[in-house]
């Protein structure tokens, strides 16, 4: 007999819920970039609606985690698994909120002709989404090497963010009629950059989960 | 619009190459992990113990700090009770026992032939698993030890009885029935009475061998509170089967397995990030 089989099953379920949450958030973010690129406002509304499901799943994860703490008195790696689940679900939920923000900003921009740096934004978004995917993979496999690698991609995203914002502001000073669009695009860049930061937070939680030590990957 | 993705190839980053980013603040508990700075009550050096052919304690080596609660945990038969009984030489009552190594109490080897066992047991008191009050009055239970040590003055004895019962957090419950038989007390009260009896001879160290395993949860919490209070003035070593109890009340924890000390460290660290896989398996209940 495996001792504490029931508890282990509950811990596994918690882990699988995080993976599911990660997939939902990843889809929301991919969709939000579709919305941005193709001005697909129906898809935008879908993202906003689907966010409720993500919020509920995060609440469920937190409820399960609290019950496990209350009923199972977890210690050591069991406790770290539960605390990591709470922290990671919070990061993922926030990332899904950024997808909603991107969708809303795109609606605000409306059906207008887009300016050039859009491609840069798409590349940056792709990196951030890949970071989320890698972070969840690192979490699932308890892969510290993959988790630490995210810090490097985050540096790339930060660099691209700086350049893109600079480019957008340069365009804005010459074309004042583009102020509303560029303001929203700047927000979108910020949401993507923050998405990457939250992926890095997840990576930190993964390292804490595995090693019991804190690492500052965002510094 | 066609989007081209030019993701830069990532350098192959190995874990060790990436060390530069790490350990911004590796857990502060680590710093509290050494007992070296605290004065020691017991220093155990290469202690081995056999019951006949059975090697019950193997190369035990660690230091028990002063005015701290040191918990001994481990599965049944791991040697934890045997170990605690060596600290006041009670283990010698078992006929087939052989020992090697040394235990220094306040710097003196307690196995030294010149060491007075009665003196040791006055300094190192013990509380057992089942409350064992004498079938006498509450007052006599407490006054017994001091009387044996030659205190005859009624006023002094009264003071010792009150002080001991107060320290053991049972005074208010028994002050009006001091001359009733102690056997009439509840299990939890009896155990606190036994702790008071132990305190009456003003020991330096209190050994507790599963002191709450026969008590109900509320009595258990009262004894736990009492232990926290007592560590201000006494050094306490407690054997417990209840891991949560060790986590709640102790400063240091030693994990015993098959007669060996697998891990001895700060309780917070042991229960959050144990360094040995066997400790992890035991405290998370994945044993066997």
In short:
By secondary structure, chain A is mainly α. Chain A is built from 6 helices and no strands.
Can you walk me through this structure?
Chain A has 219 residues and is mainly alpha-helical. Chain A has one domain: Up-down Bundle (Methane Monooxygenase Hydroxylase, Chain G, domain 1), CATH 1.20.58.220. Helices cover 86% and strands 0% of the residues of chain A. Chain A contains six helices and no strands. Chain A has helices at residues 5-38, 41-72, 76-109, 118-141, 144-174, 179-211. The longest helix of chain A is centred in the first third of the chain and has 34 residues, at 5-38. Chain B has 288 residues and is α/β, with parallel strands linked by helices. Chain B has a single domain, classed as Rossmann fold (3-Layer(aba) Sandwich), CATH 3.40.50. Chain B contains ten helices and ten strands. Chain B has a six-stranded mixed sheet with strand order 6-7-8-3-9-10, with helices on both faces. Chain B has a four-stranded antiparallel sheet with strand order 2-1-4-5, with no helix packed on it. In chain B, a hairpin with a 2-residue loop joins β4 (97-105) and β5 (108-109). In chain B, α3 (138-148) runs parallel beside α6 and α6 packs parallel to α7. The radius of gyration of chain B is 24 Å and the shape is globular. In chain B, 39% of the residues are buried. Residues 1-35 of chain B have low confidence and may be disordered. At the A-B interface, α1, α3, α4 and α5 of A face α8 of B.
The secondary-structure class of chain A comes to: mainly alpha
Q: Give the overall shape of chain B, derived from the CA principal axes.
A: globular
Main β-sheet description of chain B: 6 strands, mixed
Give the full name of the CATH homologous superfamily of chain B: P-loop containing nucleotide triphosphate hydrolases
CATH class of chain B: Alpha Beta
Beta-strand percentage range of chain B: 15-25%
Distance linking N and C termini of chain A: 45 Å
Poorly predicted runs of chain B = 1-35
At CATH level 3, the topology of chain B is: Rossmann fold
Instruction: Assign an overall shape of chain A.
Output: elongated
Shape-level CATH architecture of chain A: Up-down Bundle
Fold-level CATH name of chain A? Methane Monooxygenase Hydroxylase, Chain G, domain 1
**Average pLDDT of chain B:** 88
Largest β-sheet summary of chain A: none
- Radius of gyration of chain B over alpha carbons? 24 Å
Helix content of chain B: 25-40%
Quaternary form: heterodimer
Largest beta sheet: strand ordering of chain B: 6-7-8-3-9-10
Cα-to-Cα separation, first versus last residue of chain B = 60 Å
Q: Main interface pair? A: A-B, 36 and 34 residues
Provide the succession of SSEs of chain B: EEEHEEHEHHHHEHEHEEHH
